[in-house]
Amino acid sequence: METRRLVLRDWREADWAPFFEGTNTPEGMRWLGGVIDADKQAWQRARLEGYARDHGFTFWVMERKADGAVIGMCGLKRSNQEGGPQGDFEVGWRLRRDAWRQGYAREAATAALDHAFGQLGAPHVLALTVPGNTASWGLMERLGMERREDLDFDNRDFDREGGRIIAYALTRAMWEARA
User: Fold this and answer.
1) By CB count within 10 A, which of 29, 49, 92, 112 is most buried?
2) pLDDT in tens, 87-120
3) Is 125 within the bounds of a domain?
4) What's the number of domains the chain is made of?
């Protein structure tokens, strides 16, 4: 998929090193449970590649058109967090620090939501974060998503400070009304 400034695409071998180098930092992984080791990186890589192969969508590479740089990932998966929603479409993103606050996440998430509702026929899409990650839930609100406290759950794998995962949702009708 292409947006004005980005290409969202499947992963290539050359993408992994710059992706982990740019996003697997204490600041970048603060809300995701902390920096991950090489074994966890290999597991995450296999999971993303397998998800694309098996389902036709995943958290795709975010490549900046201007310079071809890998600045993060954004895309879709089916919710499967222990204690949380199961089987719903979920949108998510992770960017390297120097790409924060430039609208890239919103641009990519909008394309992913268009794909979910347009090509995949999603009835609704969720997004999950932790209460302290104001940048993430702020983006969810700017995307038109609504807070869904009834879908909140606990999972200490992500936020060791409290373990509370909060949910936002966007229905097809809400998305169409914004379009």
Assistant:
1) 112
2) 899 999 999 999 999 999 999 999 999 999 999 9
3) yes
4) 1
Of the candidates 39, 107, 123, 116, the one whose C-alpha atom is nearest the C-alpha of residue 77 is 116
Going from the C-alpha of 161 to that of each of 47, 79, 124, 132, 135, the distances in angstroms are 26, 22, 29, 9, 17
Which tokens is 141 given?
Answer: 């609100």
pTM above 0.90, yes or no: yes
Q: 73: domain CATH number?
A: 3.40.630.30
**Cα separation values, 86 from 35, 130, 144, 148, 177, Å:** 26, 18, 22, 15, 26
Domain housing 24:
6-178
State both tokens at 158: 């992500």
Structure tokens at 23: 């996003």
Q: Could you tell me if residue 15 is left (phi over 0), alpha (psi between -120 and 50 degrees) or otherwise beta?
A: alpha
Residue 1, domain member (yes or no) = no
Amino acid in the structure at residue 85: P
Q: HSE, CB side, 13 Å, CA atoms: give it for residue 179.
A: 13
What is the C-alpha to C-alpha distance for residues 37 and 58, in angstroms, rounded to an integer?
22
Half-sphere exposure of 6 (CA within 13 A, CB side): 27
